[in-house]
Design goal:
The chain is 39% helix and 17% strand. It is α/β, with parallel strands linked by helices. The strands form three sheets. It has a seven-stranded parallel beta sheet, sandwiched between helices. It has a two-stranded parallel ribbon with strand order 7-11. A two-stranded antiparallel sheet has the order 8-10. The longest helix has 14 residues. The chain is globular. Bound molecules: NADP nicotinamide-adenine-dinucleotide phosphate.
Length: 278
Amino acid sequence: MTNKILVLGATGNIGKPLTAALIAKGETVKAASRTGKAIVGAEGVIFDFTDLTTIDNALEGVNRIYVMVPTGHIDVVSLVTPVLDAAIKRGVKIVFQSVLGVDADDNIPYRQLELKIERSGVPFVILRPNWFSDNFHTFWLAGIKQGVIAVPAGQGKSSFIDVRDIAESAASALTTSEFDGQAFNLTGPVALSYTEAAEILSKESGHPIQYQAIEDSVFVNILTEAGVPNDYAGFLASIFYPVREGWTALTTDAVEKLTGHAPRTLTAYVRSHLSLFK
Ligand SMILES: NC(=O)c1ccc[n+]([C@@H]2O[C@H](COP(=O)([O-])OP(=O)(O)OC[C@H]3O[C@@H](n4cnc5c(N)ncnc54)[C@H](OP(=O)(O)O)[C@@H]3O)[C@@H](O)[C@H]2O)c1
């Protein structure tokens, strides 16, 4: 029987709630990670993008795959192409976690992966999430604990999206053919500046948190001093350009279409993670 769903990055921000949502729907899930540990009721399987010998076993018994790119990689085309090729060869349906805005230019690496999937002939759904709300308790938490969010976002607004809404959208895309052949720009319900986001964090946590708009070079220095490799720090700085330009301020009804409910607000996100911000 080939009816299993392979979730890549199953221990991660999206993969974990996605695996839980699929198990709750009664699906049989192979949770892929580099350790291969079982998570949230799913069997674990070892998968490493950088070890091609792990692909075949991970795809055994699978007819649908959730493909995401782990944080920290720049050459995403080289990293992801082997597993995409293997899935396409087997006729596996692909749900791909891309990035909002990459369809602006076919030369953008994530767009090249999208195009490969679109032209492959296998059923697919492409999900393009905006900036995650959850970055506030991952990437920006160290600063927030000192009362500051320092990023080069200018006064640009973003419709931050809760990873639970991405995971639930992905679960729908994987468990019905209704959305096949389509791409969805996944956003939160409203666009907020980092000043407005800091106000929400301050109000809900009871601690003053301020936004500091910084230059790219200052941001890169902060990241490299925290141990982020220089080239990835430069990449992270570059993706704030679309924020400053206002391109991440759009809102869509994609989450509602895919999940049947409105996306969660930033306030709801903060309330769900309050202990981390106290
Ligand atoms: N953060 C944002 O605001 C944002 C917005 C839009 C799009 N995105 C995109 O979302 C993606 C990140 O999603 P995420 O936050 O869910 O990922 P994540 O939590 O950073 O990573 C998911 C998992 O990937 C696994 N992993 C790391 N290296 C691996 C490797 N070499 N082979 C196999 N697995 C590996 C890790 O698990 P193990 O250690 O257990 O193997 C990790 O738990 C990126 O492509 C990013 O561009 C992010």
